[in-house]
Structure formats: structure tokens, C-alpha cells
Task: inverse folding
């Protein structure tokens, strides 16, 4: 199976985010690695995903699990070598699966030689590669992101008596993007990894590249100019490959990251994510409809990337204060479940391990605009461990089977990088790939079906969105339309049966097909449609 040559491939693709440390350990050291991941490509192919995004595997002291890079041109020995990386990309491509890497531009590790030089003296030639100040009073309007641990975005450096700037951990000093040498070097980093054959990048934390007094230091015009330069290099040297933007911002502030189709190809849609959870809990579609209506149009060559969970806490930055408290109250009843402005839990536990709700959330993800990304393990309903440090509770070993260490590693259990999930509901003896692969009724096969059906219809990735407004707010219904194909998606957000009459659409002459069951559906006789859904039920109906 070969990689397609459609340059807009990402508009129809299903993405899969994974942590190489967590996927498969090939050498028995207790940590997943690139060779291990390459050996599991058959699984990803069976699932049907088109593109995998790998968390950072570069040289790093791992204070932020690899988002603190100490050498941009090398692989951390835990994961293997550059040759292993190239072999992995090749193996994925042979299976028709693309690979994107993480591009961490904003900051390095404090162990990076650039920073060690920079902090060695105020006159060092690398001094200006980072952001230094005599006071910690500059940029007071910039928020602190890792609120639980960092009191300030400035940290005092004893050696040179100045403060350095960091938007994340103090061990992650921000690079100074006003310095042309920094910008040039990061273009070299981009080229280096693109030349290994990858298909693009998920670009980390891009709103924060530039700081300016009197602003909140996010989304500044100078930052966009730098990102357009990156895109220019991609277009000129690596056509057909993509840049995916991580900007945890409101839709109006994310819109400029697409530019006129000359900045990012894709961007995560952060605000819709918590609203899917809110709508389900409240049995009221309003939050979803409102945020989608607040989402501006994007250029034709661009695409949203939508998700339910990822490797970070479930972020509640893009909600109101009141909504955040609602989410915490409903989904993080124990204090330990809360982290920074979010929730350190996985999808299945958030859904009370209720298959119907897990599928319903995925059904919305797969039918709303954007290309969906699945977080590894969520396709089998993996659980979390809220007692692990930082965000590690959602980064535990992939559960392959019911053998020791969940089949992830042959190391002694106490040598795993993190323990496998072993509780009564989500333990690997119960929740694992091997069991779900052979069970046609498993969550794995339900997600596989979503993927397979979605891939047959461009309307999901490219179609317009029109909400229908049945009187019952607990029903979310919309039409997706593209080049003459029309699909109706209906979701019941409650735990009781619901019957709705869908108004204001011309159903006359429709030859409906239930896409997921591949069954014809009674043709509509009038200009309205009556549909009954079971508790948490959903339906994808192809009308034309
Ligand atoms: C990543 C985090 C990381 C941070 C700093 C984020 O946006 O998703 O995992 O800690 O950037 O690099």
C-alpha cells in the first residue's frame, strides 16, 4: 500500500498521536523505542490510520518528556538511533502511513549547549539567543501556563545576575526569535528532519515565539511572519508535506495561523473539544453549535484537526471561568484529577467507561468538520493513573495483551518507565489489543469501522456544515455536504430514547443509507424526517 500523491491528503486523513516511549519496547529496557514502534505498524495499518504524529524523541534530559530538547540533531538513546528513525519512516510509508514529528521551536532545554553558553557570561556570543532581562517585571501581561509549578515566566540566573524568560518550565528557556541567527538555525532543524523523509510537523507552542511589552506576548504579527517563513521553506523544498499548528486559542485568534493558505496547513481546534464533553454531560447541544458557529471559515487548502484527548491534561483554557468549574465539577471530582487549568484523565474514564458514550464522542469527532486525531490507547478504551507525576498518568504503556507488562516490554515490571494500568476496570488483563482484535463487538472494531467508513467519503473531511435544529436540545444533528454527496449525522446526548423530527431540509427523493451498518434506510416521503435514537445513539445517514 503506497502513500497517496494527493497534495491535500491531510484534509481526508485520520491521524493518530502516539508516544514512542509508551508504544512498544523492543530491547527489554522498560522503555518503548523506535524499533518497537516500527514492529507494531501492522496494528496501525489494521486500525486504518493515515498519519501518525510522534511525540519528541530528540536528545533531552526529559524534564518535560522530551519537549525540552538538548540537541535538535540527535535521537535520545532511549529511543534508538537516527538509522532507526529513518527505518521507521520507511516502514510506515510502506504501509501507506505518513509520519509527522514534533517541532519544538519556542524553547530548548536548559541543558542545551546554546543555553549553557548563553548563560555563561553576558558577553557570550550566544547571549542573545535567549531572552534576558535585568528585572523580572517585563511582559507582565503574559500568563503563566504551568500554573501548578511555576510562579513566574522569569527565572534568576546566579552566574550572570539576570533573569531569563520561559513560558513553560524554568528548565525550558525561550529562544529569542528576534535574533536572525535563531530563526536561521530553526529552519536548519526543520530541513534536517524533513530530509529524513517525514511528512511534516506538529509545531509546538507557536503563539509564544515573540515577546512585546504591552501585549500578552501571544499571536503577535512578528510571530506570524516567522511562521510564514517556515511555510515558505516547506512549499519550496518539501511540497505535499504539512505543518500542523498547536495554538491553544479562540477560533478568531487561530484563524490567522492559516494565513491566506500560506502559514499552517492545519491547526488543532482546541475550543470545540471541552464543549463536546459539556454538551454530553448537560444533554444539550448548544455549546457545540455555538462554538462551531463562532469558527471562521478557513482557506480551501487548510484543515482543522479535532481531538478528544491528547498527551497533555484535558485543557480548559478555551472555556469561561464558569464552564471550567462545571467541567471540573463533573469530570474531575477528586482534586488530584485537576492539573493546571485542566484534567489529567483519559477518555474512557471520563466517560465512566460507558461504551455508548465513548462511541458517541467519537462519532461526533468523526463527523464534525476537521480531520480527527486519535490518542493512542483511546481506541481500546485505556484507563489512566492520576497518581503519576505531571501528565504521565495518560502516557502509560500501550496495552497489547494480558501477559505481564501488558505485552509492552520484557523488562521486570519495576523497570518500566511508568507502571502499566492494572486496576479493576481498565487493567491490561481486561483492556488490551489482543482481546479486542478477536472480538468483532469491541471498541477497537467500532473505531476501525468509523475510520473505514469515513475514508470512503470525502464529505467528512471537505464538506460544509449545516446544523439542523430539532426542538429537543438533547439531539445534535447536522448535514455535511460536498460535491453532491450529503450526509446527515444525528446524535442523542441522553441516556433515554429520543425521537426527533428533522425540519427544514428537502429530503424528497433521498435514497438514504445507514453508512455504519451499510443498510438502506426508509426513504423519506415528505419534507421532514422522523428519527428515533437509542440512549447515546448516533446515526450517519447518507442522503445522496
Ligand atoms: C506540549 C506539552 C509541552 C509544552 C512545552 C505543549 O504544548 O503539548 O506537552 O509540555 O508544549 O513544550
Result:
Amino acid at each position: 500500500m503506497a502513500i497517496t500523491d494527493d497534495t491535500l491528503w491531510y484534509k481526508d486523513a485520520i491521524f493518530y498521536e502516539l508516544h514512542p516511549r509508551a508504544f512498544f519496547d523492543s530491547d527489554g529496557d522498560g522503555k518503548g523505542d523506535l524499533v518497537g514502534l516500527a514492529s507494531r505498524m501492522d496494528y496501525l495499518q489494521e486500525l486504518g490510520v493515515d498519519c501518525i504524529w510522534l511525540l519528541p524523541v530528540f536528545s533531552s534530559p526529559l524534564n518535560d518528556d522530551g519537549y525540552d530538547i538538548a540537541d535538535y540533531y540527535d535521537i535520545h538513546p532511549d529511543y534508538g538511533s537516527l538509522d532507526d528513525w529513518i527505518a521507521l519512516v520507511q516502514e510506515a510509508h510502506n504501509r501507506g502511513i505518513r509520519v509527522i514529528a514534533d517541532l519544538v521551536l519556542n524553547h530548548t532545554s536548559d541543558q542545551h549547549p546554546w543555553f549553557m553558553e548563553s548563560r555563561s557570561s553576558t558577553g557570550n556570543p550566544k547571549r542573545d539567543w535567549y531572552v534576558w532581562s535585568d528585572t523580572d517585571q517585563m511582559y507582565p501581561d503574559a500568563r503563566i501556563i504551568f500554573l501548578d509549578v511555576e510562579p513566574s515566566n522569569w527565572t534568576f540566573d546566579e552566574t550572570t545576575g539576570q533573569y531569563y524568560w520561559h513560558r513553560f518550565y524554568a528548565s525550558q528557556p525561550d529562544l529569542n526569535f528576534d535574533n536572525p541567527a535563531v530563526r536561521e538555525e530553526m529552519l536548519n532543524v526543520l530541513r534536517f528532519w524533513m530530509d529524513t523523509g517525514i511528512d511534516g510537523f506538529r509545531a509546538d507552542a507557536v503563539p509564544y515565539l515573540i515577546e512585546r511589552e504591552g501585549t500578552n506576548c501571544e499571536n503577535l504579527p512578528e510571530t506570524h511572519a516567522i511562521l510564514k517563513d517556515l511555510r515558505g521553506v516547506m512549499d519550496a523544498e518539501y511540497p505535499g508535506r504539512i505543518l500542523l499548528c498547536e495554538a491553544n486559542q479562540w477560533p478568531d485568534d487561530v484563524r490567522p495561523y492559516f494565513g491566506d493558505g500560506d502559514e499552517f496547513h492545519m491547526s488543532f481546534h482546541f475550543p470545540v473539544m471541552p464543549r463536546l464533553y459539556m454538551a454530553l454531560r448537560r444533554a444539550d447541544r448548544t455549546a457545540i453549535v455555538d462554538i462551531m458557529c463562532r469558527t471562521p471559515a478557513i482557506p480551501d487548502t487548510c484543515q482543522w484537526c479535532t481531538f478528544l484527548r491528547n498527551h497533555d491534561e484535558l485543557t480548559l483554557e478555551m472555556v469561561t471561568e464558569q464552564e471550567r468549574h462545571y467541567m471540573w465539577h463533573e469530570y474531575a471530582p477528586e482534586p488530584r484529577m485537576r492539573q493546571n487549568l485542566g484534567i489529567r484523565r483519559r477518555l474512557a474514564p471520563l466517560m465512566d467507561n460507558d461504551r455508548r458514550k465513548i462511541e458517541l464522542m467519537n462519532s461526533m469527532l468523526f463527523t464534525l468538520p476537521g480531520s480527527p486525531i486519535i490518542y493512542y490507547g483511546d481506541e481500546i478504551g485505556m484507563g489512566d493513573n492520576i497518581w503519576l507525576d505531571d501528565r504521565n498518568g495518560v502516557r502509560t504503556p500501550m496495552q497489547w495483551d494480558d501477559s505481564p507488562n501488558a505485552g509492552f516490554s520484557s523488562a521486570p515490571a519495576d523497570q518500566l518507565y511508568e507502571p502499566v494500568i492494572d486496576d479493576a476496570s481498565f487493567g491490561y488483563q481486561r483492556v488490551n489489543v489482543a482481546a479486542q482484535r478477536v472480538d468483532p463487538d469491541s471498541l477497537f472494531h467500532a473505531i476501525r469501522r468509523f475510520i473505514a467508513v469515513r475514508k470512503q467519503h470525502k464529505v467528512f473531511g471537505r464538506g460544509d456544515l449545516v446544523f439542523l435544529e430539532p426542538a429537543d436540545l438533547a439531539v445534535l444533528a447536522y448535514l455535511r455536504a460536498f460535491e453532491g454527496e450529503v450526509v446527515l449525522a444525528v446524535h442523542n446526548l441522553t441516556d433515554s430514547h429520543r425521537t426527533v423530527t428533522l425540519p427544514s431540509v428537502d429530503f424528497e427523493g433521498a435514497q438514504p443509507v445507514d453508512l455504519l451498518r451499510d443498510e438502506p434506510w426508509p426513504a423519506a416521503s415528505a419534507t421532514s424526517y422522523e428519527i428515533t435514537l437509542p440512549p447515546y445513539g448516533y446515526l450517519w445517514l447518507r442522503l445522496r
